């Protein structure tokens, strides 16, 4: 397959290596210093685009791919309030996009079990729940996209929570944050070069249940994005990465 990379930062560089190891060809690489190469003609050389840039540039990049008629896999986070609009554009105009807050297989298993656990916890209301996410200090958005997906999975399945709120701390101290009973706290921490750690904590007066995913490096995210490009290149429409996994059969 021919792949175009939008964003050649930490993720773009690893995706390139993994794509080549899977016998794909990188036909276009765009970063902030060669934006003039982002033309429909260049994009159309690719069977699929993989986009890992910034919250400020992702929507323009999506538009470029839609205008060029090339399927796009979006890894960038921090734009999810625009999902309904983008979904509509896919459905109305026949565009193709797949996005994930986290492409790693391990995190997608975690998402699935998180939803099941939240359902179980309905029977045990004396546990309160919160989400913690830790990432490197270069991260531009908070909470992490993964943290939002985890929180939404809890809110959809646990009757006592109806919205999430975020608190960002820049060191590892954990001040006891107080939130309303219906609110689910997502505590974001930014520490050194941490690739991504997410924990769901159910706490009661007598004990604590911690459910945790730790990324050791970025390779799992990158492999998932390449697998998503392989999966989507001949499809039409709007997809979340869940469509690639079938945990129910
Ligand atoms: N979904 C996932 O599995 C997953 C995993 C890791 C990171 N991410 C997300 O991916 C994004 C990128 O992460 P990263 O660690 O590679 O960041 P990074 O800062 O290392 O790389 C981003 C790159 O995008 C470039 N860029 C900026 N504007 C651009 C534009 N208009 N067009 C093309 N390139 C542009 C920057 O110069 C930079 O090189 C972030 O939003 C992050 O949250 C998602
Ligand atoms: O490094 C990042 O930035 C990451 N972003 C994603 C998120 O916001 O959840 C996935 C994990 C790494």
UniProtKB/TrEMBL annotation:
Which residues constitute the catalytic centre?
135, 139
What are the Dihydrodipicolinate reductase N-terminal domain coordinates in residue numbering?
1-103
Q: Where does (S)-2,3,4,5-tetrahydrodipicolinate bind?
A: 136, 145-146
What Gene3D superfamilies does the database record attribute to this sequence?
Answer: Dihydrodipicolinate Reductase, domain 2, NAD(P)-binding Rossmann-like Domain
Q: Which CDD domains match?
A: DHDPR_N
Q: What region holds the Dihydrodipicolinate reductase C-terminal domain?
A: 106-244
Q: Which GO terms describe its molecular function?
A: 4-hydroxy-tetrahydrodipicolinate reductase
The pathway to which it is assigned is: Amino-acid biosynthesis; L-lysine biosynthesis via DAP pathway; (S)-tetrahydrodipicolinate from L-aspartate: step 4/4
What is the uppermost EC class here?
A: oxidoreductase
Alphabetic keyword roster: Amino-acid biosynthesis, Cytoplasm, Diaminopimelate biosynthesis, Lysine biosynthesis, NAD, NADP, Oxidoreductase
Among NCBIfam families, the record links this protein to: dapB (TIGR00036)
How it assembles, according to the record, is: Homotetramer.
What does the protein in this record do? Answer: Catalyzes the conversion of 4-hydroxy-tetrahydrodipicolinate (HTPA) to tetrahydrodipicolinate.
**Protein name stated in the entry:** 4-hydroxy-tetrahydrodipicolinate reductase
From which organism does this entry originate?
Mucilaginibacter pocheonensis
Question: Gene encoding this chain?
Answer: dapB
């Amino acid at each position: 397959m021919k792949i175009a990379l939008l964003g050649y930062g930490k993720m773009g560089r690893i995706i390139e290596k993994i794509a080549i190891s899977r016998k794909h060809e990188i036909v276009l690489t765009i970063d902030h210093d060669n934006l003039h190469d982002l033309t429909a003609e260049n994009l159309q050389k690719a069977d699929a685009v993989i986009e890992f840039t910034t919250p400020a540039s992702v929507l323009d990049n999506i538009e470029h791919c839609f205008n060029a008629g090339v399927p796009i896999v979006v890894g960038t986070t921090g734009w999810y309030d625009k999902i309904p609009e983008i979904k509509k554009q896919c459905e109305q105009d026949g565009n193709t996009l797949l996005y994930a807050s986290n492409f790693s297989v391990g995190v997608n298993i975690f998402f699935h079990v998180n939803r099941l656990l939240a359902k179980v916890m309905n029977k045990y209301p004396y546990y309160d729940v919160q989400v913690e996410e830790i990432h490197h200090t270069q991260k531009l958005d908070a909470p992490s996209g993964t943290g939002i997906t985890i929180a939404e999975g809890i809110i959809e399945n646990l009757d006592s929570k109806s919205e999430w709120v975020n608190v960002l701390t820049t060191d590892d101290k954990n001040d006891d944050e107080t939130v309303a009973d219906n609110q689910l706290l997502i505590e974001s921490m930014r520490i050194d070069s941490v690739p991504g750690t997410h924990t769901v904590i159910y706490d009661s007066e007598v004990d604590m249940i911690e459910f945790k995913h730790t990324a050791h490096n970025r390779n799992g995210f990158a492999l998932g994005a390449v697998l998503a490009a392989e999966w989507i290149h001949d499809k039409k429409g709007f997809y979340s990465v869940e469509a690639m996994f079938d945990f129910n059969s």
